[in-house]
From TrEMBL:
InterPro entries: 5-3_exonucl_a-hlix_arch_N (IPR020046), 5-3_exonuclease (IPR002421), 5-3_exonuclease_C_sf (IPR036279), DNA_polI_H3TH (IPR020045), FEN (IPR038969), HhH2 (IPR008918), PIN-like_dom_sf (IPR029060). Residues 11-272 form the 5'-3' exonuclease domain. Gene3D superfamilies: 5' to 3' exonuclease, C-terminal subdomain, 5'-nuclease. This is 5'-3' exonuclease domain-containing protein. It holds the Pfam family 5_3_exonuc_N. The keyword NAD does not apply. Keywords: DNA-binding, Hydrolase, Nuclease.
Length: 301
């Protein structure tokens, strides 16, 4: 796996919802707040956030959260988008709010929007920062983010402590970053209920893009597919002809938006001293003295 040298000067863009869900599933249900509500996900997320800040020493950080499971622009394009996912139960919804409160209390910028997903907010921030000559580190294990990585960017799977740049995307998926959205449009993404082209799997999608370069060129030259040295080439060509419009629709779903409303400069993502709510949030969450002192140290208190 290739690595890209990063320092505290790189902007760290965190896929917050991923780490809240991980904490929800992994932390024992034995933590409760001052009102008796479960807060296991908040405890796990707070631990993750502390470790991230302590390890990275990042000066510029933003955490993106999803608030658009049924209201994103993709749902308008394709109503079945993410229809395979159950809505978070009320206990988890409440914990998401508390995770955002902890993030803000630590002086970290929260990115959230009802039309754009966390992926889009991270992508738009990275694109804007790149225009200012800044490097970005995407903190997430999600393969979708591979499409964003430039030569000076990096993705960090924090739980496994694995880091990779553009070459790592090719190592994982068999395609280059600029081909990831096309690749997912062809083979589909079951996690997000994106169908892809029926009968085209990951290996075939990668082989097609290696030969044609992009989905657009592939569909323009679809008659050539039958003559490729891939298994079931003739059937593959027929499927692409039949489902060309579906493939293009899927790409509208798999492509991360770069025009979400986010602050255009790194200064807006610079860590602050906190919003003065840390003690109150700690009291509500019934954090122990070790967690409280750790959080205070991170805010400079």
């Amino acid at each position: 796996m290739d690595t890209v040298s990063t320092t505290a000067s790189a902007v760290h863009l965190v896929d917050g919802s991923l780490y809240v869900f991980r904490a929800w599933h992994s932390m024992p249900d034995q933590f409760h707040d001052a009102d008796g509500h479960p807060v296991n996900a908040v405890h796990g997320f707070t631990r993750f956030l502390c470790e991230l800040l302590e390890k990275s020493r990042a000066e510029h950080v933003a955490v993106a959260f999803d608030a658009s499971l049924t209201s994103s622009f993709r749902n308008a394009i394709y109503p079945a988008y993410k229809a395979n996912r159950e809505l978070p139960p009320p206990d988890l919804e409440r914990q998401f709010v508390l995770c955002r409160a902890i993030t803000e209390a630590l002086g970290i910028t929260v990115l959230i929007d009802h039309s754009y997903e966390a992926d889009d907010l991270i992508g738009s921030a990275l694109w804007s920062l790149r225009g200012h000559g800044l490097d970005s580190v995407i903190v997430s294990a999600d393969k979708d983010f591979g499409q964003l990585l430039g030569e000076r960017d990096e993705q960090w799977d924090f739980a496994r402590n694995l880091r990779w740049g553009p070459a790592g995307v090719h190592e994982k998926l068999g395609v280059h970053p600029h081909q990831v959205a096309d690749y997912l449009a062809l083979c589909g993404d079951a996690v997000d209920n994106i169908p892809g082209v029926p009968g085209i799997g990951a290996k075939t999608a990668a082989a097609l893009l290696a030969h044609f370069g992009s989905l657009d060129v592939l569909l323009e030259r679809v008659d050539e597919v039958a003559f490729l040295r891939i298994r079931g080439a003739a059937a593959c060509a027929a499927r692409l002809r039949e489902h060309a419009e579906l493939a293009l629709l899927c790409r509208r779903l798999t492509r991360i938006a770069l025009d979400a409303p986010i602050a255009p400069t790194a200064d807006a993502l610079r860590r602050q001293a906190g919003n003065g709510q840390l003690d109150a949030v700690c009291e509500q969450l019934r954090f122990g003295p070790l967690t409280r002192s750790r959080l205070r140290a991170l805010t400079g208190a």
